[in-house]
Amino acid sequence: MRVVFAGTPEFAAAALAAVHAAGFAVPLVLTQPDRPAGRGMKLTASPVKRFAVEQGIDVAQPPSLRRNGKYPEDAARAIDLLRATPHDVMVVAAYGLILPQEVLDIAPHGAINIHGSLLPRWRGAAPIHRAIEAGDTETGITLMQMDAGLDTGPMIRDARIPILPNDTTGTLHDRLAQLGAELVVEGLRDLERDGRLPSTPQPAEGATYAEKIAKHEAALDWRRPADVLARQIRAFDPFPGAFGTLDGVAVKIWAGQALASAAGAQPGTIVDVGPDGVVVACGEGALRLTQLQKPGGKRLPAREFLAGAQLASGQRFQEGLPAA
């Protein structure tokens, strides 16, 4: 069984490593072009590219696969390469580029997508973030036969896991990445044995869209209920990191505990400061901030953060983004 793999971040790298370790031939890997990253903004290879290079697997990095897009010549070359690379199936995981129907039709068994939700819930770019933010108690991985729609293809199989009360996007991502890696290997073994993968159309009911996370969403709106903000903080860890603006400075907030009451204080007002955390009034209840970070600093437990920060009851977080 020959597998062309398309993916970019760590979530995809886990699946590629599992496919490779299971003994499937991987003649080609597609991943996004190197991007500037880190303090020096140096061009950095994706986790998928790094793994492929380490294993001696050929890598292609087209900026697009759409002939009618911004990079038609690059797309044409990549499609020609795919056609010239003998393979039985394409596996796709968090690739980040649109795959036109022409590409999906190249492999005899089409393209199988590893999606980080229980479809049809949370189609789209940020299913892990949005599941935590919405307060879902369960999520999982869906193997899907790709079509030209946005995560609309028929479902091959799924696997479920609970979302734990202290899960962040980071911790849930790691569990789902491992689950996806195991599930796709099972699917490829079935395909190799049976020559087909039965699938079921997605139900029309229950579809939701996981819109890509925007940085402006990270600003906490203290008028919202405390439990909603607590979920938002977990959902935006590690990226983009929730924050509140205090005296014109953005303070990152990495952990918070919802409390029942804030004694009627105006939302955003600090009502208590202690070693266990900084308690801030919300639209409903209050939020005890237990892990914070100053600009240029490190994530710190509240006790250590307060040793270097002058916070007091009565101070108030401002609404919106800090002044430029």
Automatic annotation (TrEMBL):
GO terms for molecular function: methionyl-tRNA formyltransferase activity. Residues 1-186 form the Formyl transferase N-terminal domain. GO terms for cellular component: cytosol. SUPFAM superfamilies: FMT C-terminal domain-like (SSF50486), Formyltransferase (SSF53328). Pfam families: Formyl_trans_C, Formyl_trans_N. (6S)-5,6,7,8-tetrahydrofolate binds at residues 117-120. Residues 1-21 form the signal peptide. Coiled coil: none annotated. CDD domains: FMT_core_Met-tRNA-FMT_N, Met_tRNA_FMT_C. It catalyses: L-methionyl-tRNA(fMet) + (6R)-10-formyltetrahydrofolate = N-formyl-L-methionyl-tRNA(fMet) + (6S)-5,6,7,8-tetrahydrofolate + H(+). Residues 212-309 form the Formyl transferase C-terminal domain. InterPro entries: Fmt, Formyl_trans_C, Formyl_trans_C_sf, Formyl_transf_N, Formyl_transf_N_sf, Formyl_transferase-like_C_sf, GART_AS, Met-tRNA-FMT_C. The keyword Repressor does not apply. Its EC number is 2.1.2.9. Keywords: Protein biosynthesis, Signal, Transferase. HAMAP family: Formyl_trans. PANTHER family: METHIONYL-TRNA FORMYLTRANSFERASE, METHIONYL-TRNA FORMYLTRANSFERASE, MITOCHONDRIAL. Belongs to the Fmt family. Attaches a formyl group to the free amino group of methionyl-tRNA(fMet). The formyl group appears to play a dual role in the initiator identity of N-formylmethionyl-tRNA by promoting its recognition by IF2 and preventing the misappropriation of this tRNA by the elongation apparatus. This is Methionyl-tRNA formyltransferase. It comes from Caballeronia glathei.
